[in-house]
Amino acid sequence: MTEEYNFKCICSITTRILGFPDGSLSTKSRKRPLQAARAVASYIARSEEDIHRSIIGKVLNRNRSNIYHYERTHKKYFATSLIYRNTFDKVYKAYLDTDGTKAIFLDKDIMKSFLLKNGIKETLNSEVLLEIYSGQVSCVIKTSYFDFSNQLEKVKFALSNYHYTVKIK
Q1: The pLDDT value given to residue 160
Q2: Which residues constitute the domain of residue 8?
Q3: Do 85 and 135 belong together in one domain?
């Protein structure tokens, strides 16, 4: 999964929990409940997933400087704004419930052998590297331009019950 995909999942959790339509976080609306939802989703993405500000800004259709603002004002809004605090509590609890159901790998060798047993294949003359991160470990799958999208789909299927990210190099 990419950072963008992970953030879209956080946005989906946010809109579902708060009862907003899908995609409403990226609208230009300045209604207070939507502003609070955007700020909460951004803060969770930065603090829990370390998702880059430019990716968050792109998905929310905002400038990345807004993301700095959301991070900087979190403590103040949490202490003073009932709407923000209630929004944060609901979304963060749902995020932890969803995120807690997925496992992580503790050893890179175990992760690599798990991937290889589940249909992922490496090529000798690699043109593309898939860096897969889970928890504090990572492993690299070597593949070709021709086959990397197929291997990426296999990784997504094999790790569907795991918390992970993939970077393509």
Answers
A1: 80
A2: 3-100
A3: no
pLDDT of 62 > 60? The answer is yes
**Banded model confidence at residue 9, pLDDT cuts 50, 70, 90:** confident
Interval 104-141: pLDDT, tens:
788 888 899 999 999 999 988 889 999 998 877 889 99
Domain boundary among 100, 127, 149: 100
CA distance 42 to 25: 10
Domain-terminating residue out of 73, 100, 127: 100
**Distance, CA of 123 to CA of 44 (rounded, Å):** 37
Is there a single domain that holds both residue 24 and residue 76? yes
The H or E element that residue 14 is part of is helix 3-18
Name residues whose C-beta falls within 8 Å of residue 124's C-beta, 6 or more positions apart in sequence.
142
Looking at the structure, tell me whether residues 91 and 117 fall in a common domain. no
Cα–Cα distances in angstroms (integers) from residue 45 to residues 25, 63, 92, in the given order? 14, 16, 10
Cβ atoms 70, 39 nearer than 8 A: yes
| 104 neighbors 135 (Cβ within 8 angstroms) | yes
**Angstrom distance (rounded) from CA 141 to CA 3:** 19
Does 43 have pLDDT greater than 80? Answer: yes
